[in-house]
Design brief:
With 613 residues, the chain is an alpha+beta fold. It contains ten helices and 33 strands. It folds into four domains: 5-15 and 461-554, Immunoglobulin-like, CATH 2.60.40; 21-120 and 240-451, 5-stranded Propeller (L-arginine/glycine Amidinotransferase, Chain A), CATH 3.75.10.10; 121-228, no CATH class; 568-612, Type 1 dockerin domain (Orthogonal Bundle), CATH 1.10.1330. 16% of the residues lie in helices and 26% in strands.
């Protein structure tokens, strides 16, 4: 009895179950971007943001609005694409104080988190030095501190308190301390100087008593002082509290519901996969002054973030924002910065990157990790070990906007994005004159996406080459949610061989048991495949997966003798082989006996193989 060699394999790429409520991820359909006037970004970036989408501009009054309108018009921006939001602001870092968005079926809320500036923390190789006993002081709450080892020393501070033992330790020609520096030290930054012993922080908190110590006479001049992030302090002592209500004003003007979050959730130190998974460095927990367990409980309760990865602070000293170290470009792909081996933070950044290897995506498999080399740069005066912040980019629908530093590594950074996000429009932008990109403050920090509350969302576990077992049984499955409530009319897959210049072929998916499914046709072995999925509703609105571009995978190589790549060796392969020999078809896999020729000897070898099975 003749036996046949049949491999019955069924490669599936099924979806997970999309959470009922979830925080929107950055690559999802956006209607625009939030920035602040006065701007902290270059004019060509503003033009790009307003080209196809709405530019939401935070202004304080009609005078600022008029200024912005005049500039935008001179740059050729269509004012139909500009919406002004009237609110008080202190900074242009809309990423950090701007809103996240909580979405669900019949649910849309603007998240109004707490915001109070930029605490810095140590992390990598941060070992405290011994303190001279003469320098040990106690703050208003009884907390000991070492006077000549102030936090934010890289911003020019010599001591916490300019007493008789403080000197110009950094040799910059001026003794600078925390009192009278324009920043309120009421315990929010670790130490409390709001008492008589420390002259009530020399009025930095807007209140106080007598200066019986002479500390305030030595306070740094208000005309050129800087805060503890190295950023200018205005003479009228305006502060971060002005940024804390921008989300409320934004939501009210757009008529959207507000989700008050009793937590600090600084946007630059937060990433999400869009399916209930969050990422931050440990500074996020410390900023909230609570245990990690309590933080995880709170974000799960309020934001449905049921998996939250808290990573070690990878910088020696910084604001430790994760968007300067990593970039999620999709629910299963992440770009992580790589620093020079000479950097004192090299090992810490490698440990940071390795942490992603042990994480599972929403679809239960490892993240795809792309590394992006970020060389050293001349950063801000407050920065320690600054490197190019290429991960500090903005995804806006089909575009990725990447900071550029005018160095050779710029082009390689753009190429890394093209490899990680094939088909997206990758665009580089130099920093603005007078407001350049820094190592921990770049393009992403100064922009915030505003998303579509009526978006169509596609959840699809993309095909990976290493998981393919059969080129003839690749099942594609996608879950589609239309948050507008409209009916989905069509779901289609577009695919082609990467080597072909021709158009994509189209296959419509069928709804089966809550998900849409189709099969790839039998694919050639060892071939690159490009594909993407689309869904269209009754109003002709549509969305894609990925949001732009396409997925890539390579089919498996065929078994020797499996000429047609269907993982079966049988008479169909013999027929195909004869057609190859007759010259009507070409196929390198027809050389069964490996002699470099495709001829009758290969037919004999193939037939014998079938008979022996």
């Amino acid at each position: 009895m003749r036996k046949s060699f049949i491999i019955l394999l069924f490669t599936t790429f099924i979806v997970g179950s999309v959470p009922d409520k979830r925080v929107v991820a950055e690559w999802e359909p956006a209607i625009g971007t939030m920035v602040r006037w006065p701007l902290g970004i270059p004019s060509d970036l503003v033009v790009e943001l307003a080209r196809n989408d709405v530019l939401y501009v935070l202004v304080e009054n009609s005078f600022q609005q008029s200024q912005a309108q005049s500039s935008f018009t001179s740059w050729g921006i269509d004012m139909q694409n500009v919406t002004f939001i009237f609110t008080q602001t202190y900074s242009h870092w809309t990423r950090d104080h701007g809103p996240q968005f909580l979405i669900g079926q019949d649910h849309w809320e603007v998240v109004n988190q707490r915001f109070d500036g930029y605490p810095e923390e140590g992390g990598c190789n941060d070992e405290p030095q011994d303190c001279d006993e003469n320098m040990i002081l106690v703050d208003c709450d009884g907390m000991e501190f070492c006077n000549n080892q102030p936090d934010y020393i890289e911003e020019g501070y010599d001591c916490y308190i300019n007493n008789e033992l403080c000197q110009d330790f950094n040799g910059d020609g001026v003794i600078m301390d925390w009192l009278g520096d324009g920043y309120c030290d009421d315990g929010s930054w670790g130490l409390d100087f709001m008492c008589d012993d420390y002259s009530w922080d020399c009025g930095d908190c807007g209140e106080g008593g007598q200066d019986n110590n002479g500390f305030c006479d030595q306070a740094y001049s208000s005309s050129n002082r800087i805060n503890k992030q190295g950023r200018p302090v205005s003479a009228d002592l305006r502060g971060w509290e002005e940024d804390d209500d921008t989300n409320i004003d934004f939501a009210n003007q757009l008529g959207w519901d507000i989700k008050d979050l009793p937590l600090f959730l600084t946007g630059g130190n937060f990433m999400t996969d869009g399916y209930g998974m969050g990422f931050s460095t440990e500074l996020m927990v410390n900023e909230n002054n609570m245990s990690q367990d309590q933080f995880l409980l709170d974000v799960s309760e309020h934001l449905s973030l049921d998996t939250y990865h808290i990573l070690d602070n990878p910088n020696v000293s910084s604001i430790q924002h994760i968007d300067c170290m990593a970039k999620l470009t999709g629910p299963e792909t992440v770009i992580i910065k790589q620093v020079p081996e000479s950097s004192p933070e090299y090992d810490c950044i490698e440990n940071f990157a390795s942490a992603f290897n042990s994480m599972s995506t929403f679809y239960g498999r490892p993240f795809k990790v792309h590394r992006l080399f970020c060389p050293s740069i001349n950063g801000g005066s407050w920065e320690t070990n600054p490197v190019a912040a290429y991960t500090n980019s903005l995804i806006l629908n089909n575009k990725v906007l990447v900071p550029q530093y005018g160095i050779l590594a710029d082009q390689q950074a753009l190429e890394t994005y093209r490899n990680a996000m094939p088909g997206y429009d990758i665009i580089g932008f130099d920093g603005a004159t007078g407001s350049p990109w820094y190592g921990e403050d770049a393009l992403h920090c100064r922009t915030m996406g505003v998303f579509d509350p009526e978006m169509i969302h596609l959840s699809h576990k993309s095909i990976r080459s290493e998981e393919i077992e059969s080129n003839s049984n690749i099942l594609v499955e996608v879950e589609v949610l239309d948050y507008s409530g409209e009916n989905i009319e069509t779901v289609s897959m577009f695919w082609k061989y990467s080597a072909e210049d021709g158009p994509f072929q189209v296959i419509d998916l069928e709804l089966e048991g809550g998900a849409y499914r189709c099969m790839f046709p039998t694919l050639n072995p060892s071939s690159g495949i490009e594909y993407y999925l689309t869904a269209t509703n009754a109003l002709d609105a549509s969305a894609s997966h990925p949001n732009a571009g396409w997925h890539l995978f390579t089919t498996t190589s065929s078994v020797a003798g499996d000429i047609n790549g269907d993982t079966e060796i049988n008479i169909q392969d013999v027929v195909l082989l004869i057609n190859i020999i007759l010259g009507s078809l070409e196929n390198e896999s027809g050389d069964i006996n490996g002699d470099g020729f495709v001829d009758i000897l290969d037919v004999v070898k193939l037939v014998n193989t079938i008979l022996e099975l």
